[in-house]
Amino acid sequence: MPRLEFADGFSLHFEVYGPDIGTADVSPVLLAHGAGGNGLVWWQNISAFSDRYPVITFDHRAFGRSPDIQDGPGRIAFGGDVRALLKHVGAKDVHFVGQSMGGRTAFGLFSREPSMIRSLIYAGTNGGCVDDEYRSLKSQYETDGTLSGSLLQRAMAPDFKTKDPEMYFLYRQLRGLNPPRPKDFLAPTKRMINYKGSTAQRLSQSGIPILWICGEMDRVVHPELIKISHRLTPGSRYIEVPEAGHSAYFETPQLWNSLVRDFVDQVEASNLAG
Fold first, then answer.
1. Residue 175, φ and ψ in degrees, nearest 5
2. DSSP class of residue 66?
3. Could you tell me if 125 and 248 are in contact, meaning their C-beta atoms sit under 8 angstroms apart?
4. What is Dmax (Cα atoms) for the chain?
5. Quick check: 245 and 158 in contact, CB under 8 A?
6. CA-to-CA distance for 251 and 157, rounded, in angstroms?
7. Could you tell me if 193 and 99 are in contact, meaning their C-beta atoms sit under 8 angstroms apart?
8. pTM, rounded to two decimals
9. pLDDT digits (tens, 9 = 90+) for 88-109
10. What's the helix, strand, coil split of the chain in %, to 5?
């Protein structure tokens, strides 16, 4: 079981699939899971990329098989953890797929080492790319009940549980493999509670190809909110996956895989052309 050992005693679990990173002529695809999952949730997606691309999955700190150390840094270390992982496996840069919470990790890496990101695929996340219009609409959705319910209740489209009960059960089982975490593990730090900044300018000026992809029935980060993030990053792309909720990669994997693979292939093709 591949692990990256840190000096403070933390141990990060990861997996690498497909071609050898050192000899592949394309950048690897890194799949960063959300708060409801761990590295195992990508089982329907890995093979859609690994025929051509090295694929890296991992368990975030305090998730899956990467329990945090006592009084560890928690989520603020996500970006640094991934940077260390990529250097460990010899990846110069990656197509970074950040699902929900994984979008925080993507920007954490970007803020530390932007050259390590070949493209950004923000899946069901705003990536910190917000403005006053975004904040106002989000507040409206929270007030009128559009985004009401527990994270587990909102993780899928409203009808997914009845439409595909076996897969819903499997999702819950995979989620249940995560170790216990403090309830406020993902809560904003005191410094961030009243933060009014945005990643929009830095993302726009970076020149990194960006895809915003979300389910049309996402009740965690509503599609109308993601559309604002898209507008704040001129030149980025926006795709809405029909009949899917917040976990489109899990609910409608074949379509989601095809859409993301097409984007990654196009980025690689443009790189070769250049």
1. -60, -35
2. B
3. no
4. 52
5. yes
6. 8
7. no
8. 0.95
9. 999 999 999 999 999 999 999 9
10. 40, 15, 45
Other beta carbons within 10 angstroms of residue 10's beta carbon come to 19
Task: List, as own/partner pairs, every contact residues 130-136 make where C-beta atoms lie below 8 angstroms and the sequence separation is at least 24, other chains included.
Answer: 130/198, 130/200, 130/228, 130/229, 130/232, 131/198, 131/200, 131/228, 131/232, 133/228, 134/225, 134/228, 134/229, 135/196
Question: Which amino acid, one-letter code, is at 234?
Answer: P
CATH number for the domain spanning 135: value is 3.40.50.1820
Q: Which domain holds residue 27?
A: 3-273
pLDDT of residue 242: 97
Token pair for 70: 């006592």
pLDDT tens profile 187-221: 666 655 566 779 999 999 999 999 999 999 999 99
In the block, tokens 């406020």 appear at 184
Q: Please give the helix or strand (H or E) that residue 87 lies within, else none.
A: helix 78-89
> What total of structural domains would you count in the chain?
1
pLDDT of residue 71: 87
